[in-house]
Amino acid sequence: MNIQKNEIADEFHPTFTGSRQERAWIRESLGGFYEDRWFTDVLYRVKGGKEATVYCCRGHPVTGVDLIAAKVFRPRIFRAMKNDSLYKTNRTVLRPDGKSVFDRRRLLALRKKTAYGKRLDAASWCRHEYDALTELHEAGADVPKPLAYAPNAILMEFVGDDVQAAPILQSIRLERQEAETVFERLVENVEILLSCYVVHGDLSAYNVLYEDGEAWIIDLPQAIDALQHPRGYELFARDVDRLCRYFVKQGVEVEAVGLAQELWQRWIE
Ligand SMILES: Nc1ncnc2c1ncn2[C@@H]1O[C@H](COP(=O)(O)OP(=O)(O)OP(=O)(O)O)[C@@H](O)[C@H]1O
Ligand SMILES: [Mg+2]
After folding, report:
1. CB of 160 closer than 6 angstroms to any ligand 1 atom
2. Residue 158 has pLDDT above 50, yes or no
3. For residue 52, which atom of ligand 1 is closest to its CA?
4. What is the pTM of this model?
5. What SS3 state is found at 124?
6. Gyration radius from the chain CA atoms
7. From the alpha carbon of 158, which atom of ligand 1 is closest?
8. CA of 250: how far to CAs of 22, 110, 184, 205, 239, in Å?
9. Would the N or C end of the chain have less CB density within 10 A of its end CB?
10. Which residues, in sequence order, are CB contacts of 46 under 8 Å at separation 6+?
């Protein structure tokens, strides 16, 4: 049977509805993924964050993935994270297909912040996260596996179940011994990032999910290039410091400044 795409869109009635505005927003941002049979349903909203809203979706059987996280980026104008220029220093604006934006018309639209420019900006932000997840997942880091992308949304492996997402590390307490094990693995992860010349840029216990003894690093749209960024080390040391603060509270003995220096020397200098 040959089902037309617009007929499928008519069938898209997710379990999670939200407000009328949110329904339209979900349809617009995620309808294409539904049509392409990435998922069969949007089960619930996990969280509306500062720059994106994350939904838990039921994977389509053909994907072989039971649950999928859909991260939908707000257009730049709706994002609370106003001061994103620090992260964008020295970085190329990316189109949804991953190619760099370098033609005059697009660059001008970005600079003048026209509606089109803002859409390009959101798309670039989104594409950067997808690319970072892809590279880091392939390098063996504990990040959700990226699955697909659209101009303002990405799909990735979901951490949690069909009722709730795994908690962020910040919201739970760990026994000292477990904290030590998790911390050790997270430092290994930070090293995997450095081996790819990537600095997370917003790493803390708020951007680590914890499930069954495993920690998952999330939220990478602002990831920066350790070699190119003029303030790479400063951002790296801040990441290490924020991560260590949580673990010190769980009884882990660690000194953030020394650790950041040691890791940077080992991988970057
Ligand atoms: N792959 C995932 N599996 C399960 N839950 C996820 C996943 N990715 C994100 N989340 C949930 O969505 C929340 C927001 O995601 P993320 O941190 O990537 O976006 P954000 O817009 O930066 O949000 P925030 O402002 O809260 O940092 C996370 O705190 C987490 O609860
Ligand atoms: Mg976050």
Report:
1. yes
2. yes
3. 21
4. 0.90
5. helix
6. 19
7. 3
8. 39, 44, 13, 12, 18
9. N
10. 54, 55, 56, 69, 160, 165
Which residue in 175, 174, 133, 169 sits closest to 243, CA to CA?
169
Token digits of residue 175:
């026994």
Question: Which ligand 1 atom lies nearest to the CA of residue 54?
Answer: 12
Q: Give 94's strand partners.
A: 100
Cβ 53 under 6 angstroms from ligand 1: no
Indicate the pairing of strand 153-157 with strand 214-217. unpaired
The helices-and-strands tally (H runs, E runs) of the chain is: 8, 9
From the candidate CATH numbers 3.90.1300.10, 3.20.20.140, 3.40.350.10, 3.30.200.20, the one assigned to the domain spanning 5-157: 3.30.200.20
Dist. CA 164 → ligand 2 center (Å): 16
Ligand closest to 210 (CA) is 1
Of 85 and 1, which is predicted with more confidence? Answer: 85
Q: Is the pLDDT of residue 1 over 50?
A: no
Question: Is residue 176 predicted with pLDDT exceeding 70?
Answer: yes
Q: Is the CB of 70 under 6 A from ligand 1?
A: no
Domain assignments of the chain as residue spans, ordered by start? 5-157, 169-267
State whether CATH 2.40.30.90 applies to domain 169-267: no
Q: How far is the CA of 177 from the centre of ligand 1 (A)?
A: 27
For the stretch 106-125, pLDDT in tens is 777 777 777 777 777 778 88
